Amino acid sequence: MVIELMTENSGAKVSKYIYGQFSEHLGTGIYGGIYVGKKSSIKNVNGMRSDVVNALKEIHLPVLRWPGGLFADTYHWQQGVGPQDKRQLIVNTNWGDVVEDNAFGTHEYFELLRQLGAEAYINANVGSGTVQEMADWVEYMTRSGKSPMADLRQKNGQREPWKLKFFGIGNESWGGGGHMRPEYYADVYRQYECFLPQNNKKHPIYRSACGPNVDDYNWTDKVVKYAGEYMDGISLHYYTLPTNDWHHKGSATNFPEGQWHSVIQKAGRMDELLTRHSTIMDKYDPEKRINLNVDEWGTWYDETPGTHEGFLQQQNTIRDAMVAAINFNIFHKHADRVKLTCIAQTVNVLQAMLLTKDDQMIKTPTYYVFDLYKNHMGANVVQGIGKTPKDLTYTASQKDNQLTISIANTSINDSNEMTFKPQMNYSKIVSSYEIVGNKMDAHNTFEEPDNIVEKEFKDVLINKDGIIKAKLAPMSVVTIVIEK
Ligand code: AHR
């Protein structure tokens, strides 16, 4: 079966922010994993681990959501600014019940973004904060010249305001963020949004509302109906678990074959969720002005045995790479509505890109999928016509002179072939890379960091008629970049 690639029609643009990430105050996601402090013996710049920053720069991390998650609804920003040794200790009640010293606060977050070259996505505290607290925080971050909060920021060492691109009002307000009903949340959202300072007319702050939990379609309906005119985007949270039991989710490694298949199938459910939520949004927003942003997604397994309870530490295998590829392919399909997503989470937590242990750092299979897909950022989706062969999932996009095709083969045992015929003639392979697992839970460890790395993918040919044939190994993800 040949897939015809409709390269003559330009599909929606793949927003680069689809490749965003999420870093919460959770376990060693920030402390130890990203931030070690200036005095650490681990190589750092202004307290940020250099190995981690460099690895994230390589995949062009475009946006980083912070400070939570559930943590955001207990976070009081004033406790995290000013001299570090005078900052107030807090208890992280959501994650591990540990005491934190607030050394990583607003100034450190923007310093991290500066080093990464990434945009800000801050989540306000709606659950236990106030409208005034939120308004003061935004004034603190974004106001130039003289004002109470701008003066305080300058006193704390930052003369110029920062650029705050994305701003979330509430996190899981239907659950740990306040147990609200959608009608009530819609009003709370309207109130917070009303007092959100918009000082910079050139770069208005993007307003993101708390969206539904998985398939809570009523939430989407009510929140968009009553508050849609005041938002730029609404978020969706959907995690992939091997089982349906949050108390026995399943292991990240050493799992039965059935849990390979359940994870692949459940990751694919993202398509149905985006389709149905987006259809509801169409009722109030047929022009698709409001984005549907999946600002938490990824796998969630039982925590690695022996690790601190509540730190959500898990290994990351070739199965996770499949989940990442499946999700990206779906996000591209919905690129007209989905403009931003954040995988949960960047370092050491859930489906992480990077794992650290003291001064060591390893890249996970998921990291390599982000790397394989980075050429899609800012490209236009190319629609494919034809039946996708069993166990395969793909996406294609074009930008400038280049056609980029990414494919995942989710079969555990079989090699699988895909054939494409672009309408326009693309004839020169510019690059072609793959990652491959040799067993279902193939992964990298601190002892063996290179079990899974990107290698050149050789099983691809373009014939004289411009037909592209690729043969994928079992459990592999490939990206092929072709020029005219
Ligand atoms: O990513 C971990 C947690 O998952 C987040 O804090 C919360 O928003 C979600 O329930």
Gist of the model:
The protein is α/β, with parallel strands linked by helices and 484 residues long. It contains 10 helices and 25 strands. The model has no long low-confidence stretch (mean pLDDT 97).
State mean pLDDT (0 to 100 scale): 97
Distance between the amino and carboxyl termini: 23 Å
The secondary structure category is alpha/beta
Q: What's the helical proportion of residues?
A: 10-25%
Largest β sheet strand count, sense and barrel closure: 8 strands, parallel, barrel
The molecules bound to the chains, other than polymers, are: alpha-L-arabinofuranose
Residue runs with pLDDT of under 50 for 5 or more positions:
none
Strand order of the largest sheet: 2-5-8-9-10-11-12-13
Question: Strand share of the residues?
Answer: 15-25%
Number of strands: 25
Shape: globular
Helical segment count = 10
Characterize the structure shown:
The chain is an alpha/beta fold and 484 residues long. It is built from ten helices and 25 strands. The chain has helices at 50-58, 106-116, 131-142, 148-155, 182-194, 217-227, 257-267, 269-284, 318-333, 365-373, and strands spanning 2-5, 20-22, 44-45, 48-49, 63-66, 90-92, 98-100, 119-124, 166-169, 206-209, 233-240, 291-299, 341-344, 354-357, 360-363, 380-381, 384-385, 392-399, 402-409, 416-422, 428-436, 455-456, 460-462, 468-472, 476-483. The protein is globular and about 70 Å long. It starts with a strand and ends with a strand. The structure holds alpha-L-arabinofuranose. The site of alpha-L-arabinofuranose (AHR) has 10 residues, from loops.
